Amino acid sequence: MAEVKEAKPVQAKRSPVKADARPDAKSKSIAQLVTPTDLGDEARKEIAKQLTVLLADVFALYIKTKNFHWHVSGPHFRDYHLMLEEQATAVYEITDVIAERARKLGGTTLRSTGQIAQLQRLKNNDADFVSAPDMLSELRNDNQELVKYLREVHDLCDDHEDVATASLIEEWIDQAEERIWFLFEASR
């Protein structure tokens, strides 16, 4: 019988990596994500960046609205529960449109919940209990803040003649103003 020799582990040989090779690889990878557009490079980058920040705010508003939907309590439970579900759904529906608009501009967008937490300007509410009137008031204020942020990005789009993004933002402003109206009326 032939003698079996113990196999030695084989280590893959790696070519030495130059200090500047990784950034080049990263630059090439990111360059693959750039979408052609007639907007200038500065406009494209600025608008895509602001859309990503806006997306973080929209996700924060969505989570808070769902949180309040799940935890609302009181004599108007059913009405508030249903209204908050409708609002959460409407908020969530624009997330993909925002992210894809940033991509159409050649930018990148959110990659994690950690990035959302870093970028969001709307505050979380981790309280164990929030009264229904306080929930409605807080969501109304958050939607008003969101409208302010939307108008700022709209102004940026106007400055760079990005009518496509501006048109989308006009729709989102109208939707947010409707949420504000419903939250205001429900809390009177």
TrEMBL record:
Lineage top rank: taxon: Bacteria
The UniProt record lists the keyword DNA-binding: yes
Region (Disordered) residue spans: 1-27
Ferritin/DPS domain residues: 49-183
Keywords for the protein's UniProt record, in alphabetical order: DNA-binding
Entry annotated with the keyword rRNA-binding: no
Compositional bias of kind Basic and acidic residues: 17-27
CDD domains hit by this protein: DPS (cd01043)
Gene Ontology molecular function: any one: ferric iron binding
InterPro entries: DPS_DNA-bd, Ferritin-like, Ferritin-like_SF, Ferritin_DPS_dom
Name of one Pfam family that matches: Ferritin
Coiled-coil residue windows: none
PANTHER family: DNA PROTECTION DURING STARVATION PROTEIN, GENERAL STRESS PROTEIN 20U
Family named by the database record: Belongs to the Dps family.
Full protein name: Starvation-inducible DNA-binding protein
Protein species of origin: Chitinasiproducens palmae
